[in-house]
């Protein structure tokens, strides 16, 4: 069976796996973004606090993803839970780092001007600092998403959702008629989804970042 014939006969299952893959990555990115920005906001004013936040989240990435999922199985079981925990933790570093860099890069004169017109610290953060720090934060989100698209495939090891199941089934049946087709379908599917995600972030940036800041 050719690759295109395989896609034609298995398109329904592939679409289901692709939807699950996108859903898992998107939901984990929402959680990672919220956590990462909060960590950045809490730590960016302190030199040691920012270093601790970046070092801690960077340390997570030194753990092989397969090992991380394997260690979580006895704690949270199989399926969605280890996938969500692993992807969320792995997505933190670029967001935390870029949040800290972006917030520290805001012109102090603008912050002083906001203080001078009576803005509270929370108002300055929400109306001045975070909007100006948004471009690097969005870049961190894009990097995290690309990372998680690939890491999410490993979740199939713990019976997680997504296109990784197609890849693992192909690897487990190497030598059979459709083994290469399965691995290729899962891999190309992840690549296409990653490109679509990145295109969506480019559009989001054009809609949310003023032209002057983009320039």
How many beta-strand elements? 0
Structural class: mainly alpha
The geometry reads as elongated
CATH topology of the domain at 18-164: MetI-like fold
- Beta-strand portion reads under 5%
CATH C-level class of the domain at 18-164 is Mainly Alpha
Rg for CA atoms: 20 Å
Mean pLDDT: 90
Question: Strand count, sense and closure of the main sheet?
Answer: none
Query: Segments where pLDDT lies below 50 for 5+ residues?
Result: none
* Overall helicity: over 70%
| Overall CATH architecture of the domain at 18-164 | Orthogonal Bundle
GO biological process, one term: transmembrane transport
Subcellular location: Cell membrane; Membrane
Main location: membrane
Domain ABC transmembrane type-1: 18-201
Quick overview:
The chain is an all-alpha fold and 215 residues long.
């Amino acid at each position: 069976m050719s690759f295109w014939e395989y896609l034609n006969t298995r398109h329904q299952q592939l679409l289901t796996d692709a939807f699950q893959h996108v859903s898992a990555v998107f939901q984990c990115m929402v959680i990672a973004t919220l956590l990462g920005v909060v960590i950045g906001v809490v730590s960016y004013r302190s030199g040691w606090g920012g270093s601790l936040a970046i070092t801690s989240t960077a340390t997570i990435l030194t753990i092989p993803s397969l090992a991380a999922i394997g260690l979580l199985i006895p704690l949270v079981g199989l399926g969605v839970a280890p996938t969500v925990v692993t992807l969320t933790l792995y997505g933190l570093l670029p967001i935390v780092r870029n949040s800290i860099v972006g917030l520290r890069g805001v012109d102090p004169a603008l912050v002083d001007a906001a203080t001078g017109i009576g803005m509270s610290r929370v108002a300055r953060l929400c109306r001045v600092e975070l909007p100006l720090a948004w471009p690097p934060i969005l870049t961190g989100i894009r990097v995290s998403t690309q990372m998680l698209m690939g890491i999410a495939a490993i979740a199939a090891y713990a019976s997680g959702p997504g296109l990784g199941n197609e890849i693992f089934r192909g690897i487990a049946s190497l030598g059979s008629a459709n083994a290469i087709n399965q691995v290729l379908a899962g891999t190309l599917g992840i690549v296409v989804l990653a490109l679509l995600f990145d295109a969506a972030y480019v559009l989001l940036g054009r809609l949310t970042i003023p032209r002057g800041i983009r320039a």
